[in-house]
Amino acid sequence: MTRLGFHIARLMRDEAGLARLSVPQGQLLDALEGKSVALIGNARALAETGHGKAIDAADLVIRINRAPMPSPDSHGTRTDWLALAVRLAEADRSRLGSPRLLWMSPKRKRLDWFSATSPGFYLHPLGDYCALRESLAAPPTTGAMMIDLLLRSRLSSLTLYGFDFFASLSLSGRRTAQQVPHDFGSEAEWVAGCARADDRLSLAP
């Protein structure tokens, strides 16, 4: 697809056209087989921990959106995959240096050409987003979408770091829970249910 074709597809909401830029979901999930995965949320409370070494010890480290990393001691250093629902500034893109970008947001107008044509780019299907939104009765966070996606794979373990469901707010901004369109109580219950049903999932303190 040319750059002009990309902009036309995005403008016309040509989902099939945009999807041709993405690796198939099955291929993405196959890459996780047997791997320990660390999914890093952006809760402020993570900065008060010493989880950095455990995060870097995972086979695959996945971060979310702008992924602030105030200290290697708390956040580790690696970013193997980056799950996005926002456009990245060039400074953040260079800082994180992720080899693979995953566009999780249903808002395709935010998707930029650089991300869409990056190696191993993945576009999360709208049907998957809508199904999780219905389950939660609210728009899911990028973190919830990633948990839902990752647990479909044959990974060996999925550990969540920096997930306190907005109790300590986010390192990415100053908004309160009332100012964002998510139901964090519902997500917390959903994650707890996922952990009960699938012992590969754990939440780091």
TrEMBL record:
One Pfam short name: Glyco_transf_29
Organism domain of life: Bacteria
InterPro entries: Glyco_trans_29 (IPR001675)
Species of provenance: Paracoccus marinaquae
Name this polypeptide is given: Glycosyltransferase family 29 protein
